[in-house]
Write a structure and sequence with these properties.
Layout (H helix, E strand, L loop, with lengths): L9 H47 L6 H29 L3 H20 L8 H19 L35 H47 L7 H18 L1 H24 L7 H32 L3 H59 L2 H37 L11 H10 L9
Amino acid sequence: METQTQKVSPILEVAWTRFAQLDALSLKRSKSHIRLRWWVATLGVLATLFAILTEIVPQGFSPVISFILKMFLIATPILASGMAAFVKWRYSSGDWLVARAGAEEILKEIYAYRTILQNEPTRRAWLEKRLEEIQRSVYSGMNGELILEPHKGALPPTSRFNPSYPNTDPGFHDLTGEEYFRFRLENELGWHTKEVNKRQKERTRLQILIFIAGGLGAFIAAWGSPVSLWVALTAAFTAAMLGWQELRNIDAVIRNYSKVIIELTILSDHWKNLEGNEINQTEFYRMVRSAEDILWAQNMEYIKSQQEALKDADLEEEASLITRVIKEQRESDRRLKKAFADAVVDYTDDALQEAEENLTETFRETLGSLAEEASSELVQAELAAMQEALEEAVENFTEKLGLSSTMQSIEEDYKGVTVDANVPMKVLNEILARNPKTGEIKG
């Protein structure tokens, strides 16, 4: 069948863009997580190595080398623990697996749009609705933190659909049965076959390294002193390899991929066995449904197994050093702040008590001295003089107040009289008689 051509559909362009964004996020986060976990394992082995070297370096060998080894011995476990704590905080949710699930689900719907639904008039609305549901599901699965980078490359993304390969899907036109078989089924079958062989080699390599480390440790232990310290290094290496194998979850991945290979191979064999009129729309749609169901089930199984492996490969032990240090620092800071507050309160309380005691003592001393001074002859004489002066001042004030009143009365009674040579003697004598007398001496 000849390839059908079709102009670029806006909804397909949107779908491929969302797929590319989620695919890139998943790859980036997954690679970053694996790289950091590799460093955590490596630093754990190096910490043991530096501990052994610090122990076996003879005294006086080289102060500089001894100092450097001690610095590495101290820094390596701290760095490993800090990195483990960071990985646990930043990657424990396995958000790249959620992004991978979203990307694969979008891809599944893209192929449904271009095959089974190619004659449906409502397929654009259907795909738009599915994209909406998938994106919201991914957002929810990432606890409300979906950070996507803009896609600036070609569509479909070349990281997944390399145009230099002969069977690469162009991505936009409706597919025939033969095109779907080449672009989707055979590509997925080839990728899983290559990947399962790659994982098998990795598993074999890890097993060989584990066996070598275990055997070498037993040999060194049997050899005895002075090389017996190196048993710790072989043990650290073995533990690191086992932890790496557990993290990669290689056994489960190989089983999962093997099942996909078998099922896709059966579909491939059936399609290749069809002849002439047997290659019809019914067989085409059956192949699409079966292949997409197999790939989606494999994807869900892979994500589930990886999430379980992520939980099993917990970094709590590796991160315990830095976690405990941080906890102790917080407790120390809390104790220090409480000590500061207690010191201020205690000092203020002491100052207040001292002030209270001083003021109370001053009051008592003043009260006692006041009673003594009040009974002394000098104070009594001063008080008597003060009393006499006060009485005299009151008397003078009263006298002056009466004089003022009398003068006002005389002025009122004789306001029409002018004192001169013509005033009668009788009137003048009356005025002089009413004029008040004072005890003041004139002169």
